[in-house]
Write a structure and sequence with these properties.
heterodimer; A: mainly alpha; MetI-like fold; 13 helices; about 0% strand; B: mainly alpha; 15 helices; about 75% helix; globular
């Protein structure tokens, strides 16, 4: 992905000489590449068994009406066989345009998009701002840096509970707001404030990664470029716009993609912050989990169908993103 | 203080040398007083925001009653470590520690062992299907938990691996293995190709080159990949909450939830447990954090 040139031979991939028959070709490629295939074999096997097989099975489940009442299960010593049946694309149709599809899918879909966009924007903007500040010659900069990565260093499931104490009704945040005579919203009960709280906590958790990556990017920009720009009379904003931002492009495109994937899939924060109590603040991932495992009877088929839809959304996004980067002659680090 | 002392004791002819840079006008990266005050101000506020929730958690963990988080000012008068001793003596803390360590270490070992040769192969060799393979590795990393959870649950039930460490390890490996392969590729890319060529010239097979020359050089990279898979498995919530049923087999991520989901919410114990969990992990994180980012975005920073 990053380099398409075979470093062993210096040849470009793609311009191979015309080959004889397929059998010959297979033999040739086996002779030439067998060690490469042998080396990737362990991962291929593991992925086949642990990812591909469950994936295929999951996709099959989405074409059935499986739930916890008709799936195979063992109660005591009695084994009950699965009785779910094939119902074709009904699950997808039901999710996308069945009755109350808006409440069940589209409202969560819109919220997921808003959530992802806002969070990544905040992560990036705050991360870049802090990285720029830390990139100056400043007394105590290492110290600031160490404190600022703290939200990343402590496991998320720990910090979310800290936030839950703070956001609780009567918790420290509302007490402070009260003393300042500001309105104290019900962070963990009211649906708008639940969403705000979720974005807040996720921003807090996600900024350090962006900050550290962008700081690495900033430090790799050649200082001579700034001097040259200064010679040409560029002011601070112009230097930022025409030297810093282009210099950060490759790091930025990578961390933004990672940020989008991670935020879109962010399960722990919303799940631990609200549990089952916030139907409106559930993004698609946590909602799919709720359908499959948070309610009775568990709706396996729909949950799996949500999963497949989510994965498709991400794959489409990533492909478009990479095309778009390629058109702008950028490469992804990953 | 110290600077004035140095200057007063220094020979007179050295003073101008010390002050020349200041007299030459500002250089890049140096700000005026107002600018640097603003920078410090913003950074201090940001540091406080970063620090506060964690400091607060530590503070609350010192309060002996479960509703103390509503009256934080009372804690000052009755600070105690009772919560900690209670957690260590009367809760399944050590069971959880054991489960967490078994699951995380298992994932790490399998992840790194399986992924090492692959990381090397995709870093050095361009074989037919290379691009597709890399695409598969990328796609498996963006699997939402919802995709694999239902089928995994079914499969593991059939194999009687629900509520079993091995089951959870296998589930985690589905993400850890491709993840490690990516990270290791990034690290192998930084090792000069000339080393491989030297090995080939000396008659080593690709496997020999990998095992005898590259692997010893890649120890830091292996460590980072190991740490990353450890931390990911350590902090995973969704699968652990669903697949681990008996409370002695909970990982920390599940065990912490059990403090509030029971009939009474023992928030003080929860805070103490959270602190106990966070300290070693965070300490370790600080040791390796610089390498973490380099591993993830190595290609990016190289341009």
């Amino acid at each position: 992905m990053t380099v398409v040139i075979d470093r062993a031979t210096g040849k470009r991939r793609g311009d191979r000489a015309p080959r004889p028959g397929p059998l010959q070709r297979l033999k040739h490629s086996y002779q030439r590449y067998w060690y490469a295939y042998a080396m990737i074999a362990p991962v291929v096997v593991v992925l086949g068994v642990l990812v591909l097989y469950p994936l295929v099975r999951g996709i099959y489940l989405t074409f059935t009406d499986a739930n916890s009442l008709n799936s195979a299960r063992t109660i005591g010593v009695n084994h009950i066989d699965a009785t779910y049946k094939f119902i074709g694309l009904d699950n997808y149709a039901d999710i996308l345009w069945g009755p109350t599809a808006y409440d069940r899918f589209w409202s969560h879909f819109i919220w997921t998009i808003v959530w992802t966009a806002l969070c990544v924007l905040l992560h990036y903007a705050i991360g870049l701002g802090l990285a720029l500040l830390l990139n100056q010659k400043l007394r105590g900069r290492t110290f600031y840096r160490l404190i600022l990565v703290l939200p990343w260093a402590v496991p998320t499931f720990v910090t979310v509970f800290g936030w839950r104490f703070m956001l609780a009704d009567g918790g420290v945040i509302n007490s402070v707001l009260d003393t300042l005579h500001l309105p104290s919203p019900l962070w963990l009960e009211d649906s708008f404030w639940q969403r705000t709280a979720a974005i807040m906590v996720n921003t807090w958790c996600g900024v350090p990664f962006m900050m550290v990556s962008l700081l690495g990017g900033l430090q790799s920009i050649d200082g001579a470029l700034y001097e040259a720009a200064e010679m040409d009379g560029a002011n601070a904003w112009q230097r930022f716009r025409h030297v810093t931002l282009p210099g950060l492009r490759s790091v930025s495109s990578t961390v933004v993609l990672l940020g989008v994937i991670w935020t879109f899939n962010q399960f722990a924060i919303i799940f631990l912050l609200f549990g089952d109590t916030a139907p409106d603040a559930q993004i698609l991932v946590t909602w799919a989990y709720y359908l499959g495992f948070g309610q009775q009877p568990r709706d396996y088929a729909q949950s799996a169908a949500y999963g497949v839809l989510l994965l498709s959304i991400l794959i489409v996004f990533t492909s478009v993103y990479r095309r778009w980067l390629a058109r702008n002659e950028q490469q992804l680090a990953i | 203080m110290s600077t004035t002392a140095v200057q007063s004791s220094a020979p007179a002819d050295q003073v101008p040398v010390d002050t020349t840079p200041a007299g030459r006008g500002r250089r890049r990266g140096e700000r005026g007083l107002a600018g640097s005050l603003t920078s410090h101000g913003i950074l201090i506020v940001a540091s406080l925001i970063a620090l506060f929730p964690i400091a607060w958690l530590v503070y609350l963990s010192l309060g002996p009653d479960k509703d103390d988080y509503l009256h934080p000012e009372d804690i000052l008068g009755k600070m105690t470590l009772d919560n900690y001793s209670f957690v260590l003596q009367h809760t399944p803390f050590f069971d959880w520690l054991w489960s967490t360590v078994v699951v995380s270490l298992g994932t790490t070992v399998i992840g790194v062992l399986v992924a090492a040769t692959t990381g090397y192969a995709v870093s050095r060799m361009r074989f037919p299907g290379y691009k597709k393979f890399m695409w598969v590795l990328l796609v498996t990393q963006m699997f939402p938990v919802a995709v694999l959870m239902v089928p995994m649950y079914e499969i593991l039930s059939e194999l009687q691996l629900i509520d079993n460490y091995l089951g959870l390890i296998l589930v985690y490996c589905s993400t850890a293995v491709p993840y490690c392969a990516w990270l290791l590729k990034g690290y192998f890319d930084t090792i000069p190709f000339e080393i491989d060529e030297a090995g080939r010239v000396d008659g080593l097979s690709p496997f020999g080159t990998f095992a005898r020359l590259i692997l010893p050089l890649a120890k830091p990279g292996l460590a980072v990949a190991a740490f990353y898979s450890f931390i990911t498995a350590f902090g995973e919530v969704a699968f652990a909450s669903t697949f681990m049923l008996s409370d002695t087999k909970y990982t920390f991520a599940v065990g912490l939830q059990s403090f509030v989901s029971e009939h009474d919410a023992q928030r003080n114990l929860m805070a103490a447990t959270a602190v106990l969990v966070a300290i070693p992990v965070s300490a370790f994180f600080y040791l390796v954090q610089k390498n973490l980012v380099t591993g993830l975005t190595a290609g990016g920073t190289k341009g």
